[in-house]
Design brief:
The chain is an alpha+beta fold and about 450 residues long. It has 12 helices and 20 strands.
Length: about 450
């Protein structure tokens, strides 16, 4: 496969598309902000483009699911599913491009005592001479120690890079901003320390410029998080970041460019420059924090889920595999775990025998799968209604319809708890059970059954 030149219209961006690169991947490289809420998986159907000229790969199942037959005939494709096979001209519909989003930045102003971590000091440095042959940085630190006392002993490298020309341009007078023991910025005489506060959300970004001396908000502005073109939710972005180091860098780059643009807009609104900002605080969730700083995100995507109870996982492995790298809402069922060391077993007892059954009586069980094993337990409950025949496995006796007239045999469900330390018994198995109702002579049992038959079956004869 070879590279082909692709032109995006009407944005006017053009570049060569690599042999294994989709139109969405090329658009992201060129800064064409196609919406891709699913992270390029062909699920959201938002990255629609129209092939104006040239040849592309055949429509995929995702294309056919998200586009009508008429749209496919008109040359529309999902950019994430389409690869060029010749030079292309691609039309980008307006609805496929991400747009600026209004972000709620209103807040209630509250009077507080401002305790900034950055302090500013107005300084006047002596001019260097043979009698005062100190380097500019040393002279700055010496005057600061005279002003605020000992403890300030470092100058940030960014300040050193322009310290000498700035001091001479300001006639050796300046405003120094100090955080802890370090000079982090210098400005012209009379300049104010400006802070930047940013809330980096998954969807929106809110920024504020603050006067660090008075605590006054000078400007506020919102914007859409530019990372949204790589995925609407954090899971999609983390998945995209894990595809390659370049993908992670791309997510970081668009976030930094977005914050730089937001800061420039805020400073322009307040009549300041970016250089006036001496302190910044950016807050966000763990994923936003990692993506902004270019940190690894593998450990975030593959979170370990521990069951709160020990037992056997009854959810099919196929179903569990389908959850891999998927977003699971809070409270959603992930897997079913059964404690099989003690099982609830239902015994269908003929109605003529149930009068002898009581809660707490011992039970012995033989499963058809293990004829040589005897499992033991006790009666825990007796159903309040009878039913025709034996119940379906797993049936709830409380939901069974009451018995109606007829000649068919009736049973009453007796629920027992059976010890199963070897885990041999499984839900849905069948077998035979014995309930110990006390010792009686064989003659007494026979006579009791005869008496019951006479008293019930022949009772209506007289």
């Amino acid at each position: 496969m070879t590279s082909h030149e692709v032109t995006f219209q009407p944005v006017g961006r053009r570049a060569a598309c690599g042999p294994d690169q989709s139109l969405l991947g090329l658009a992201q490289e060129l800064g064409v902000d196609l919406i891709s809420l699913c992270g390029g998986n062909g699920q959201c159907g938002r990255c629609r483009v129209q092939i104006v000229s040239g040849q592309v790969t055949e429509p995929t199942e995702a294309d056919e699911e998200n586009l009508s037959d008429h749209e496919l005939d008109e040359g529309f494709r999902l950019a994430c599913q389409t690869f060029p096979e010749s030079p292309l001209t691609v039309g980008v519909p307006p609805e496929s491009l991400s747009t600026a989003m209004r972000t709620q930045i209103e807040s209630r102003e509250t009077n507080i005592s401002v305790v900034p971590t950055v302090h500013t000091y107005a300084l006047e440095l002596p001019r260097p001479s043979l009698e005062h042959p100190l380097a500019d940085a040393d002279s700055l630190l010496a005057v600061l120690r005279q002003t605020v006392g000992p403890g300030v002993d470092t100058v940030d490298i960014g300040v050193l890079q322009h310290l000498s020309p700035d001091l001479r341009a300001w006639d050796w007078r300046c405003t120094a901003s100090v955080r802890g023991s370090e000079v982090i910025a210098i400005g012209p005489p009379g300049s104010r320390p400006i802070g930047l506060a940013v809330d980096l959300g998954t969807t929106g970004v809110a920024g504020y410029l603050v006067d660090l001396e008075r605590g006054e908000v000078l400007a506020a502005r919102g914007m859409m998080n530019p990372q949204i073109k790589f995925g609407e939710d954090v899971i999609s972005r983390i998945t995209f970041a894990r595809t390659s180091p370049e993908s992670r860098k791309a997510l970081q780059q668009v976030a930094v460019e977005g914050l730089n643009g937001l800061t420039a807009g805020l400073c322009g609104e307040a009549g300041l420059t970016i250089g006036d900002v001496v302190e910044a605080a950016v807050v966000g969730n763990t994923a936003m924090h990692h993506l902004l700083l270019g940190l690894p995100t593998e450990q975030l995507a593959l979170a370990e889920v521990r069951s709160p109870a020990a037992g056997i996982v009854a959810t099919p492995a196929r179903q569990l595999r389908e959850l891999t790298r998927q977003f699971v809402p809070k409270g959603a069922l992930i897997a079913k775990v059964y404690d099989l060391e003690k099982l609830t077993v239902e015994i269908a007892v003929p109605e003529r025998e149930v009068a002898d059954v009581n809660v707490g009586q011992p039970v012995a069980l033989k499963a058809r799968a293990y004829p040589d094993e005897t499992f033991r337990g006790t009666v825990t409950s007796i159903a309040t209604t009878a039913q025709a025949g034996a119940p379906a496995p797993g049936g709830d006796p409380r939901t069974q319809p009451p018995a109606s007239g007829g000649s068919s045999a009736r049973t009453v469900l007796v629920t027992t708890e059976i010890d199963n330390p070897s885990l041999l018994l499984k839900p849905g198995m069948s077998g035979q059970a014995k309930i110990s109702c006390g010792e009686r002579r064989v003659r007494a049992l026979v006579m009791r059954r005869v008496a019951r038959t006479v008293k019930v079956q022949f009772w209506s004869w007289w």
